[in-house]
Amino acid sequence: MNKFIRIPSVIFILGLTFTSIRCTNKPDHGSEEHIRQATSMIDDTYLVNADNTPENWVTYGKNYAEDRYSSLTQIHKDNVGKLGLAWALNLETTRGIETTPLVVDGIMFLSGPWSKVFAVNALTGKMIWTYDPEVPGKVGENLCCDVVNRGLALYKGRVFVGTLDGRLISLDAATGKPVWEVLTVDTTKAYSITGAPRIVKGNVIIGNGGAEFGVRGYITAYDALTGEQQWRFYTVPGDPSKPFESKAMEMAAKTWSGEWWKYGGGGTAWDAMAFDPELNLFYVGTGNGAPWDWFHRSDGKGDNLFLSSIVALNPDNGEYVWHYQTTPGDDWDYTATQHLLLSDMEVEGQQRKVIMQAPKNGFFYVLDRQTGKLISAEPYTYMNWATGVDKVTGRPIETDFSRYKNENRVISPGPAGGHNWQPMAFNPTTGLVYFPAHVNSFPYGNDSIWTFKENSRNISTPIAHLPTVTDPNSPTNMNQGQLLAWNPRTQKEEWRVDYPATYWNGGVMATAGGLVFQGTGEGKFIAYDAEDGKKLWETNVGSGVIASPITYMINGRQYVSIVVGWGGNPGIWVRFTEENYPGTIFTFAIDANEPYAGFYKTKPKELIQLPVSATADEITNGQILYTANCRTCHGKMGDNGGSIPNLTYSNEGIFGIMEDIVLKGMFLNKGMPDFSDRLTQKEVHEIKNYILHSANELRSMKN
Ligand code: CA
Questions:
Q1: CA angle, residues 387, 428, 523, in degrees to nearest 5
Q2: Whole-model pTM above 0.90?
């Protein structure tokens, strides 16, 4: 009798034990306990070895080298055609999305417009938590290029986000609740954060933007666990009558003239960073000058360090180690904040540790990342400001056309750059760097009666009374994009895909499956053959794409995700798709076949038709006021509108309440500024009638 009882009871006890072990080790997918366990693993060792866990994507650039190359091979050239929708999630936002999501153990973390943060179950596509830092709508006007955020950092159970109003916030990854928050900027100035923080040796490092609005750039490291400031590196010198913060600033100040510190100087580090744990060097890219033009900023003298530079710092104390300036005496908004990508490669028979960048100025640079010495630089896009880079001095060889002191000049590339923030990717097998390049230009002008406008744009737009000189050699289509497969050893293009509709396309990811993924401004998400650029798969994602895709694995299945949300600059005022849908995460897997009902057609927008009640002079004045105050976001009359509406297509209701919108901050929460400090009731009347008059003109041209 006893024997019969004992045997099953032992099994029963063992069964209980196994069940309880399973509960302890593997909590429910997406539960707080699961997220806590998964994100707690991410420490310094984990980050250094991020490539050992290709099922996850735990830092903005995939790893410290920022190569955005996944070693996952389940999705490859031969089966990529079978990719289908696994899930989609509407983020219920309408502004631009530039984020690279992070994934750890099947949990996705991403940022969105207004610095909001989302945690999503990457297996099911269900939202787990959202966090809104409640950025005041009025900071929207401090952004040159939409209320975007490019990404997050993960470390020891925490999620880190930089906010548009200059805060750095640490969240509990399991709950989305804030743990600490620090203010990283002087809020009386138009600083902003749109970039992803990076974690290096226990610190969370973040820069800022705002050079268009007259700020002084810097980058700061905070203890990731406490938020305590560890170091700060200024990228341009301050007032030389005050003590310099460092020897580097003392050196930099010798390259400036005039009273630059009154205008901030610029050099904001708003995007690219990379880290080499072996060399113990931290790399940061710096931005353009404030104001844009060299003559007003620095009397047209000096290189203006460290504008438009790649700077190597000691990550332990933020001290300067070396710099390479891509554009001395920047005059064109030629930031070097573009993607910094580390790799090792053979150069003239020698293995070199290199850092690569395709900054806005149009040259592809390969530098020795130990010393900062130039290895090679060649143009990757059309340019007329320089003919090459001097191999000995490392300086660009400028053309006579480059500076625009006494006439307006149409210079290439323009401020959108030959390449902007959209990430590149490097495949070590093909040895190619894949990146979205631009062909474009801009009519720069230098206002002789320029005065500094605090917290307003200080940029170099054409001056009405000066002649504008164009470039007879420029390509016919000066608004085109390309996906370039660039060989950094030969400094030559191996293949390219042309995007004649627009230069504004998404960032890139490369995989060991021999694939290159990219979304386009025309609303397509595409996989190319990494060897020759042949299109292997394409799907419609409705709206234009600007963000970069990622890939990861859950329970042995590989997924590819892209977050779609049209915007940025020019995406705020123009689009290249029929509709502009709310921001959405699309996730694909082989043989997945989920239905999607998120695309719908709206009625074609009609030009507004209301009586004009203003004189010709008032309309002319309205045009001047519109150009100065409205055009940067709402676009030219008759543009089709991007993530911000074009007013010639607004409805009657909007015109009825225009004064409340413009002078009473009625849409402040959407980022529409309150202009009561800049415009009068009469001036709003003139702007309104200029729009109505323009709509009439556009209508008669159509008919
Ligand atoms: Ca800029």
A1: 75
A2: yes
